[in-house]
Protein backbone atom coordinates (compact mmCIF):
# COMPACT_ATOMS: atom_id res chain seq x y z
CA UNK A 1 0.00 0.00 0.00
CA UNK A 2 2.86 2.41 0.76
CA UNK A 3 4.21 1.96 -2.78
CA UNK A 4 0.77 2.67 -4.28
CA UNK A 5 0.44 5.85 -2.19
CA UNK A 6 3.82 7.05 -3.45
CA UNK A 7 2.95 6.18 -7.04
CA UNK A 8 -0.40 8.03 -7.01
CA UNK A 9 1.10 11.04 -5.23
CA UNK A 10 4.00 11.36 -7.69
CA UNK A 11 1.64 11.01 -10.64
CA UNK A 12 -0.65 13.75 -9.29
CA UNK A 13 2.33 16.00 -8.47
CA UNK A 14 3.75 15.62 -11.99
CA UNK A 15 0.31 16.57 -13.31
CA UNK A 16 0.60 19.84 -11.32
CA UNK A 17 -2.16 18.90 -8.87
CA UNK A 18 -1.84 20.99 -5.65
CA UNK A 19 0.03 19.13 -2.90
CA UNK A 20 -2.95 18.83 -0.53
CA UNK A 21 -5.19 17.48 -3.29
CA UNK A 22 -2.46 15.10 -4.49
CA UNK A 23 -2.13 13.71 -0.97
CA UNK A 24 -5.91 13.24 -0.69
CA UNK A 25 -6.02 11.43 -4.04
CA UNK A 26 -3.18 9.15 -2.93
CA UNK A 27 -4.95 8.36 0.36
CA UNK A 28 -8.32 7.69 -1.27
CA UNK A 29 -6.76 5.64 -4.09
CA UNK A 30 -4.78 3.47 -1.69
CA UNK A 31 -7.75 2.97 0.64
CA UNK A 32 -10.12 2.14 -2.24
CA UNK A 33 -7.86 -0.69 -3.42
CA UNK A 34 -7.52 -2.18 0.07
CA UNK A 35 -10.16 -4.37 1.68
CA UNK A 36 -8.67 -3.65 5.13
CA UNK A 37 -9.57 0.04 5.29
CA UNK A 38 -13.21 1.21 5.05
CA UNK A 39 -13.53 4.61 3.40
CA UNK A 40 -15.68 5.92 6.24
CA UNK A 41 -12.82 5.14 8.66
CA UNK A 42 -10.47 7.09 6.41
CA UNK A 43 -12.80 10.10 6.50
CA UNK A 44 -13.01 9.85 10.29
CA UNK A 45 -9.21 9.88 10.52
CA UNK A 46 -9.08 12.87 8.18
CA UNK A 47 -11.52 14.94 10.22
CA UNK A 48 -10.18 13.90 13.63
CA UNK A 49 -6.76 15.35 12.84
CA UNK A 50 -8.10 18.91 12.92
CA UNK A 51 -10.20 18.44 16.07
CA UNK A 52 -7.32 19.64 18.23
CA UNK A 53 -7.39 22.56 20.66
CA UNK A 54 -3.73 23.60 20.07
CA UNK A 55 -4.53 24.09 16.37
CA UNK A 56 -6.48 27.21 17.35
CA UNK A 57 -3.09 28.89 17.82
CA UNK A 58 -2.44 28.80 14.07
CA UNK A 59 -5.17 31.23 12.85
CA UNK A 60 -4.51 33.59 15.78
CA UNK A 61 -0.76 33.76 15.15
CA UNK A 62 -1.49 34.33 11.45
CA UNK A 63 -3.94 37.10 12.31
CA UNK A 64 -1.35 38.66 14.63
CA UNK A 65 1.14 38.74 11.78
CA UNK A 66 -1.39 40.21 9.36
CA UNK A 67 -2.27 42.99 11.82
CA UNK A 68 1.31 43.81 12.86
CA UNK A 69 3.12 43.53 9.55
CA UNK A 70 0.94 45.99 7.69
CA UNK A 71 0.65 49.72 8.13
CA UNK A 72 3.22 51.89 9.88
CA UNK A 73 5.02 49.14 11.78
CA UNK A 74 6.83 47.71 8.77
CA UNK A 75 7.96 51.13 7.59
CA UNK A 76 9.19 52.09 11.08
CA UNK A 77 11.08 48.83 11.54
CA UNK A 78 12.81 49.02 8.17
CA UNK A 79 13.57 52.71 8.71
CA UNK A 80 15.16 52.01 12.10
CA UNK A 81 17.31 49.15 10.79
CA UNK A 82 18.33 51.13 7.71
CA UNK A 83 19.63 53.89 9.95
CA UNK A 84 21.47 51.43 12.19
CA UNK A 85 23.22 49.16 9.67
CA UNK A 86 22.50 50.61 6.23
CA UNK A 87 25.97 52.20 5.99
CA UNK A 88 27.86 48.97 6.80
CA UNK A 89 29.37 46.74 4.10
CA UNK A 90 26.42 44.70 2.86
CA UNK A 91 24.22 46.86 5.09
CA UNK A 92 21.13 46.96 2.83
CA UNK A 93 21.11 43.15 2.70
CA UNK A 94 21.69 42.98 6.46
CA UNK A 95 18.55 45.08 6.90
CA UNK A 96 16.67 42.27 5.14
CA UNK A 97 18.10 39.70 7.57
CA UNK A 98 17.36 41.73 10.69
CA UNK A 99 13.88 42.68 9.47
CA UNK A 100 13.05 39.02 8.84
CA UNK A 101 14.32 38.03 12.28
CA UNK A 102 12.25 40.68 14.04
CA UNK A 103 9.18 40.05 11.91
CA UNK A 104 9.65 36.35 12.65
CA UNK A 105 8.69 37.03 16.25
CA UNK A 106 5.36 38.33 14.97
CA UNK A 107 4.21 36.33 11.96
CA UNK A 108 5.74 32.84 12.00
CA UNK A 109 5.29 32.62 8.21
CA UNK A 110 8.23 32.73 5.81
CA UNK A 111 6.03 33.44 2.79
CA UNK A 112 4.32 36.40 4.49
CA UNK A 113 7.72 37.68 5.61
CA UNK A 114 9.25 37.51 2.13
CA UNK A 115 6.26 39.26 0.54
CA UNK A 116 5.87 42.02 3.14
CA UNK A 117 9.54 42.87 3.65
CA UNK A 118 10.37 42.46 -0.03
CA UNK A 119 7.76 45.02 -1.03
CA UNK A 120 9.32 47.48 1.45
CA UNK A 121 13.01 46.86 0.78
CA UNK A 122 13.30 46.09 -2.93
CA UNK A 123 12.55 49.67 -4.10
CA UNK A 124 15.19 51.01 -1.65
CA UNK A 125 17.77 48.50 -2.87
CA UNK A 126 17.00 49.39 -6.46
CA UNK A 127 17.47 53.12 -5.75
CA UNK A 128 20.88 52.40 -4.20
CA UNK A 129 21.92 50.49 -7.31
CA UNK A 130 22.18 47.28 -5.28
CA UNK A 131 22.57 43.99 -7.21
CA UNK A 132 19.00 42.73 -7.15
CA UNK A 133 19.93 39.05 -7.41
CA UNK A 134 21.89 39.32 -4.15
CA UNK A 135 19.05 41.32 -2.62
CA UNK A 136 16.60 38.54 -3.53
CA UNK A 137 18.99 35.88 -2.22
CA UNK A 138 19.47 37.56 1.15
CA UNK A 139 15.72 37.99 1.69
CA UNK A 140 14.76 34.51 0.43
CA UNK A 141 17.10 32.86 2.92
CA UNK A 142 16.48 35.25 5.83
CA UNK A 143 12.68 34.93 5.53
CA UNK A 144 12.93 31.31 6.66
CA UNK A 145 14.21 32.41 10.09
CA UNK A 146 10.51 33.16 10.71
CA UNK A 147 9.63 29.48 10.90
CA UNK A 148 12.41 28.61 13.35
CA UNK A 149 12.05 31.27 16.06
CA UNK A 150 8.73 31.52 17.95
CA UNK A 151 5.96 31.68 16.99
CA UNK A 152 6.44 29.03 14.30
CA UNK A 153 3.57 27.35 12.48
CA UNK A 154 5.67 24.32 11.36
CA UNK A 155 6.83 23.75 14.95
CA UNK A 156 3.19 23.72 16.09
CA UNK A 157 2.42 21.11 13.43
CA UNK A 158 5.42 19.02 14.47
CA UNK A 159 4.36 19.23 18.11
CA UNK A 160 0.90 17.93 17.24
CA UNK A 161 2.33 15.07 15.14
CA UNK A 162 4.95 13.99 17.69
CA UNK A 163 3.13 14.77 20.96
CA UNK A 164 5.96 17.15 21.90
CA UNK A 165 5.61 20.32 23.98
CA UNK A 166 5.00 23.39 21.80
CA UNK A 167 6.61 25.59 24.46
CA UNK A 168 9.76 23.42 24.50
CA UNK A 169 10.02 23.60 20.70
CA UNK A 170 9.51 27.37 20.67
CA UNK A 171 12.20 27.84 23.31
CA UNK A 172 14.59 25.48 21.48
CA UNK A 173 14.19 27.38 18.20
CA UNK A 174 15.49 30.71 19.56
CA UNK A 175 19.24 30.02 19.47
CA UNK A 176 19.30 28.32 16.03
CA UNK A 177 17.28 31.24 14.65
CA UNK A 178 19.72 33.76 16.12
CA UNK A 179 22.67 31.75 14.77
CA UNK A 180 21.16 31.89 11.30
CA UNK A 181 20.59 35.63 11.70
CA UNK A 182 24.20 36.25 12.75
CA UNK A 183 25.56 33.95 10.05
CA UNK A 184 23.48 35.53 7.28
CA UNK A 185 24.54 39.02 8.41
CA UNK A 186 28.19 37.94 8.33
CA UNK A 187 27.66 36.57 4.81
CA UNK A 188 26.13 39.89 3.72
CA UNK A 189 29.06 41.82 5.23
CA UNK A 190 31.61 39.57 3.50
CA UNK A 191 30.00 39.83 0.05
CA UNK A 192 29.42 43.57 0.48
CA UNK A 193 33.07 44.16 1.36
CA UNK A 194 34.42 41.76 -1.27
CA UNK A 195 32.36 43.24 -4.12
CA UNK A 196 32.25 46.80 -2.74
CA UNK A 197 28.47 46.84 -3.02
CA UNK A 198 26.57 50.14 -2.75
CA UNK A 199 25.41 51.16 0.70
CA UNK A 200 23.59 54.02 2.39
CA UNK A 201 25.66 57.22 2.36
CA UNK A 202 23.26 59.69 3.95
CA UNK A 203 24.13 60.83 7.45
CA UNK A 204 22.23 59.13 10.25
CA UNK A 205 19.16 61.03 11.35
CA UNK A 206 19.07 60.44 15.11
CA UNK A 207 15.65 62.01 15.51
CA UNK A 208 14.22 59.69 12.86
CA UNK A 209 15.99 56.76 14.51
CA UNK A 210 14.39 57.52 17.89
CA UNK A 211 10.98 58.01 16.28
CA UNK A 212 11.21 54.73 14.34
CA UNK A 213 12.53 52.90 17.39
CA UNK A 214 9.51 54.04 19.38
CA UNK A 215 7.12 52.99 16.62
CA UNK A 216 8.85 49.64 16.14
CA UNK A 217 9.01 48.83 19.86
CA UNK A 218 5.76 46.78 19.86
CA UNK A 219 7.31 44.41 17.30
CA UNK A 220 10.43 44.11 19.46
CA UNK A 221 8.42 43.45 22.62
CA UNK A 222 6.00 40.84 21.25
CA UNK A 223 8.55 37.97 20.81
CA UNK A 224 9.78 38.56 24.38
CA UNK A 225 6.18 38.52 25.58
CA UNK A 226 5.57 35.17 23.84
CA UNK A 227 8.73 33.50 25.15
CA UNK A 228 8.28 34.72 28.75
CA UNK A 229 4.64 33.60 28.90
CA UNK A 230 5.52 30.16 27.55
CA UNK A 231 8.76 29.71 29.47
CA UNK A 232 7.23 30.43 32.86
CA UNK A 233 3.94 28.66 32.19
CA UNK A 234 1.85 31.81 32.46
CA UNK A 235 -0.26 30.77 29.47
CA UNK A 236 -0.57 27.89 27.03
CA UNK A 237 0.52 28.36 23.38
CA UNK A 238 -3.12 28.72 22.32
CA UNK A 239 -3.77 31.36 24.99
CA UNK A 240 -0.57 33.17 24.01
CA UNK A 241 -1.76 33.22 20.38
CA UNK A 242 -5.07 34.80 21.39
CA UNK A 243 -3.33 37.34 23.64
CA UNK A 244 -0.91 38.17 20.81
CA UNK A 245 -3.81 38.93 18.48
CA UNK A 246 -5.45 41.13 21.10
CA UNK A 247 -2.12 42.90 21.64
CA UNK A 248 -1.65 43.43 17.89
CA UNK A 249 -5.16 44.83 17.54
CA UNK A 250 -4.75 47.25 20.45
CA UNK A 251 -1.35 48.44 19.22
CA UNK A 252 -2.66 48.99 15.69
CA UNK A 253 -5.76 50.82 16.94
CA UNK A 254 -4.26 52.89 19.76
CA UNK A 255 -0.57 53.43 18.95
CA UNK A 256 -0.42 53.37 15.15
CA UNK A 257 -4.07 54.38 14.62
CA UNK A 258 -4.14 52.63 11.26
CA UNK A 259 -6.61 49.83 12.04
CA UNK A 260 -9.52 50.65 9.78
CA UNK A 261 -12.45 48.28 9.27
CA UNK A 262 -11.17 47.66 5.75
CA UNK A 263 -7.71 46.66 7.00
CA UNK A 264 -9.18 44.50 9.77
CA UNK A 265 -11.43 42.75 7.24
CA UNK A 266 -8.46 42.18 4.93
CA UNK A 267 -6.35 40.77 7.80
CA UNK A 268 -9.13 38.40 8.92
CA UNK A 269 -9.72 37.15 5.37
CA UNK A 270 -5.98 36.73 4.78
CA UNK A 271 -5.54 34.76 8.03
CA UNK A 272 -8.68 32.71 7.32
CA UNK A 273 -7.59 31.70 3.82
CA UNK A 274 -4.06 30.85 5.01
CA UNK A 275 -5.49 28.79 7.88
CA UNK A 276 -7.83 26.95 5.50
CA UNK A 277 -4.90 25.98 3.30
CA UNK A 278 -2.91 24.74 6.30
CA UNK A 279 -5.85 22.74 7.68
CA UNK A 280 -6.43 21.07 4.32
CA UNK A 281 -2.76 20.11 4.21
CA UNK A 282 -3.00 18.82 7.80
CA UNK A 283 -6.03 16.65 6.95
CA UNK A 284 -4.41 15.22 3.83
CA UNK A 285 -0.92 14.70 5.28
CA UNK A 286 -2.16 13.23 8.54
CA UNK A 287 -4.32 10.76 6.63
CA UNK A 288 -1.33 9.65 4.58
CA UNK A 289 0.70 9.40 7.78
CA UNK A 290 -1.99 7.23 9.36
CA UNK A 291 -2.08 4.92 6.32
CA UNK A 292 1.73 4.59 6.32
CA UNK A 293 1.66 3.80 10.03
CA UNK A 294 -1.15 1.28 9.45
CA UNK A 295 1.08 -0.32 6.80
CA UNK A 296 3.94 -0.28 9.37
CA UNK A 297 6.25 1.67 7.05
CA UNK A 298 7.98 3.60 9.90
CA UNK A 299 8.72 0.34 11.71
CA UNK A 300 10.07 -1.28 8.53
CA UNK A 301 12.33 1.73 7.83
CA UNK A 302 13.60 1.80 11.41
CA UNK A 303 14.28 -1.95 11.38
CA UNK A 304 16.13 -1.78 8.04
CA UNK A 305 18.26 1.22 9.00
CA UNK A 306 19.20 -0.11 12.44
CA UNK A 307 20.03 -3.52 10.94
CA UNK A 308 22.26 -2.10 8.19
CA UNK A 309 23.69 1.09 9.75
CA UNK A 310 25.04 0.87 13.28
CA UNK A 311 26.59 4.33 13.52
CA UNK A 312 24.42 7.06 15.09
CA UNK A 313 26.00 9.98 13.26
CA UNK A 314 25.52 8.22 9.93
CA UNK A 315 21.82 7.64 10.64
CA UNK A 316 21.41 11.34 11.48
CA UNK A 317 23.21 12.24 8.23
CA UNK A 318 20.88 9.94 6.29
CA UNK A 319 17.83 11.57 7.89
CA UNK A 320 19.18 15.02 6.98
CA UNK A 321 19.74 14.06 3.35
CA UNK A 322 16.23 12.63 3.07
CA UNK A 323 14.68 15.72 4.68
CA UNK A 324 16.63 18.04 2.39
CA UNK A 325 15.50 16.07 -0.66
CA UNK A 326 11.84 16.05 0.39
CA UNK A 327 11.97 19.76 1.27
CA UNK A 328 13.02 20.58 -2.29
CA UNK A 329 9.75 19.24 -3.70
CA UNK A 330 7.00 19.30 -1.03
CA UNK A 331 5.48 22.25 0.83
CA UNK A 332 6.82 22.61 4.35
CA UNK A 333 3.61 21.91 6.37
CA UNK A 334 2.91 18.75 4.37
CA UNK A 335 6.53 17.63 4.67
CA UNK A 336 6.51 18.06 8.46
CA UNK A 337 3.35 16.01 8.85
CA UNK A 338 4.54 13.28 6.48
CA UNK A 339 8.09 12.93 7.79
CA UNK A 340 7.40 13.09 11.54
CA UNK A 341 5.84 9.61 11.92
CA UNK A 342 8.58 8.15 9.72
CA UNK A 343 11.60 9.71 11.41
CA UNK A 344 10.45 9.88 15.03
CA UNK A 345 11.01 6.13 15.72
CA UNK A 346 14.33 6.30 13.85
CA UNK A 347 15.49 9.29 15.90
CA UNK A 348 14.49 7.59 19.13
CA UNK A 349 16.48 4.50 18.11
CA UNK A 350 19.67 6.58 18.19
CA UNK A 351 18.71 8.42 21.38
CA UNK A 352 17.77 11.74 19.77
CA UNK A 353 15.37 13.91 21.75
CA UNK A 354 12.08 14.65 19.89
CA UNK A 355 12.66 18.39 20.42
CA UNK A 356 16.04 18.16 18.68
CA UNK A 357 14.46 16.20 15.82
CA UNK A 358 11.77 18.87 15.42
CA UNK A 359 14.28 21.72 15.15
CA UNK A 360 16.50 19.68 12.82
CA UNK A 361 13.52 18.89 10.61
CA UNK A 362 12.31 22.48 10.37
CA UNK A 363 15.82 23.82 9.63
CA UNK A 364 16.17 21.20 6.88
CA UNK A 365 12.81 21.96 5.33
CA UNK A 366 13.44 25.72 5.65
CA UNK A 367 16.45 25.31 3.36
CA UNK A 368 14.08 23.76 0.83
CA UNK A 369 12.11 27.02 0.73
CA UNK A 370 15.02 28.73 -1.04
CA UNK A 371 16.27 25.75 -3.04
CA UNK A 372 15.09 24.88 -6.57
CA UNK A 373 12.94 23.53 -8.07
CA UNK A 374 10.02 24.45 -5.75
CA UNK A 375 11.55 27.06 -3.43
CA UNK A 376 8.65 29.29 -2.37
CA UNK A 377 10.61 32.22 -0.92
CA UNK A 378 13.12 31.89 -3.76
CA UNK A 379 10.42 32.48 -6.38
CA UNK A 380 8.70 35.24 -4.38
CA UNK A 381 11.84 37.33 -3.87
CA UNK A 382 13.08 36.74 -7.42
CA UNK A 383 9.73 38.00 -8.70
CA UNK A 384 9.83 41.08 -6.46
CA UNK A 385 13.43 41.80 -7.51
CA UNK A 386 12.55 41.18 -11.18
CA UNK A 387 15.48 38.83 -11.73
CA UNK A 388 15.70 35.25 -12.99
CA UNK A 389 15.59 32.50 -10.40
CA UNK A 390 18.94 31.18 -11.68
CA UNK A 391 20.60 34.51 -10.91
CA UNK A 392 19.24 34.43 -7.36
CA UNK A 393 20.43 30.85 -6.86
CA UNK A 394 23.96 31.79 -7.94
CA UNK A 395 23.97 34.56 -5.33
CA UNK A 396 22.79 32.09 -2.65
CA UNK A 397 26.15 30.34 -2.13
CA UNK A 398 27.23 32.12 1.11
CA UNK A 399 23.75 31.69 2.59
CA UNK A 400 23.72 27.96 1.82
CA UNK A 401 27.10 27.62 3.57
CA UNK A 402 25.75 29.34 6.70
CA UNK A 403 22.50 27.33 6.67
CA UNK A 404 24.29 23.99 6.36
CA UNK A 405 26.70 25.00 9.12
CA UNK A 406 23.81 25.73 11.49
CA UNK A 407 22.10 22.52 10.39
CA UNK A 408 25.18 20.50 11.38
CA UNK A 409 25.26 22.19 14.78
CA UNK A 410 21.58 21.47 15.35
CA UNK A 411 22.03 17.84 14.24
CA UNK A 412 25.17 16.91 16.14
CA UNK A 413 25.43 19.36 19.06
CA UNK A 414 22.25 18.94 21.16
CA UNK A 415 23.44 21.66 23.57
CA UNK A 416 22.57 24.24 20.87
CA UNK A 417 18.91 23.29 21.37
CA UNK A 418 18.40 21.44 24.62
CA UNK A 419 18.89 23.25 27.92
**Number of E-type strands:** 0
What string gives the helices and strands in order? HHHHHHHHHHHHHHHHHHHHH
Terminal Cα separation, in Å? 41 Å
Structural class: mainly alpha
Strand content is under 5%
Biggest beta-sheet profile: none
The percentage helix is over 70%
**Rg over alpha carbons:** 22 Å
Written description of the protein model:
The chain has 419 residues and is an all-alpha fold. It has one domain. It is built from 21 helices and no strands. It has helices at residues 2-14, 19-32, 39-48, 57-69, 72-85, 91-104, 110-128, 132-142, 153-162, 166-172, 174-195, 206-231, 237-256, 261-294, 297-308, 312-327, 332-349, 354-368, 376-385, 389-394, 397-412. α3 (39-48) packs across α14 (261-294).
Which features would summarize this protein structure in a list?
single chain, 76% helix, globular, mainly alpha, 419 residues
What's this, in brief?
This protein has helices at 2-14, 19-32, 39-48, 57-69, 72-85, 91-104, 110-128, 132-142, 153-162, 166-172, 174-195, 206-231, 237-256, 261-294, 297-308, 312-327, 332-349, 354-368, 376-385, 389-394, 397-412. It has 419 residues and is mainly alpha-helical. It starts with a helix and ends in a 7-residue tail after the last helix.
Write the layout of secondary structure elements.
Blueprint: H1 2-14, H2 19-32, H3 39-48, H4 57-69, H5 72-85, H6 91-104, H7 110-128, H8 132-142, H9 153-162, H10 166-172, H11 174-195, H12 206-231, H13 237-256, H14 261-294, H15 297-308, H16 312-327, H17 332-349, H18 354-368, H19 376-385, H20 389-394, H21 397-412
